[in-house]
Amino acid sequence: MKISTKGRYALRMMLDLALQEGKRPVALREIADRQEISVKYLEQIVSVLARVGYLKSIRGPQGGYVLTREPKDYTVGDILRLTEGSLAPVECLETERNLCPRADHCVTLKLWKELDQAVRQVVDHRTLEDLVREQKEEEQH
Fold it and tell me: InterPro entries attached here (predicted)?
């Protein structure tokens, strides 16, 4: 499994907004400059995140984007699934019910399930709040 630039950039953008602590709306240009990501690419990502209500757009000269929830309420897994789709390591685990005709006899299925659980354990138990804390700790060193 490989996370695309879209997923990585979405996470960086959300972290950037969380680090601003909701003090004011943040313009995409500011995020783009800090994160060294093109504004055009961020516009694509913002549309996905705003459509599902993760971000709110504020119009006007002092406008920009803000998180709609507290950083503790966004998991890394939620953000990555919105931008990447399924994080399952194999197709047969992408749906709740495994439709593969070999599932009952597939020796490797156990391995894929373990890998899927390990990924979920990491991304679904880490929040933007965790990443904000880690970023601030990193900056103190």
Answer: TR_Rrf2-type_CS, Tscrpt_reg_Rrf2, WH-like_DNA-bd_sf, WH_DNA-bd_sf
Per-residue pLDDT tens over the stretch 122-141: 999 999 999 999 999 999 98
Beta-bridge partners for 56: 66
For 47-95, the DSSP string reads HHHHHTTSEEEE-STT-EEEESS-GGG-BHHHHHHHHH----SSGGGSS
Integer-rounded Cα Rg, in Å, for the chain is 18
Spell out the long-range contacts of 37-44 with Cβ–Cβ below 8 A and sequence spacing 24 or more. Answer: 37/9, 37/12, 37/13, 41/5, 41/6, 41/9, 42/9, 42/13, 44/6
Cα–Cα distance for residue pair 91/70, rounded to 1 Å: 33
Which of 50, 66, 71 has the alpha carbon at shortest distance from 130?
A: 71
Counting as low any pLDDT under 50, the low residues of the chain are none
The whole-model pTM stands at: 0.91
DSSP letter (8 states) at residue 101: T
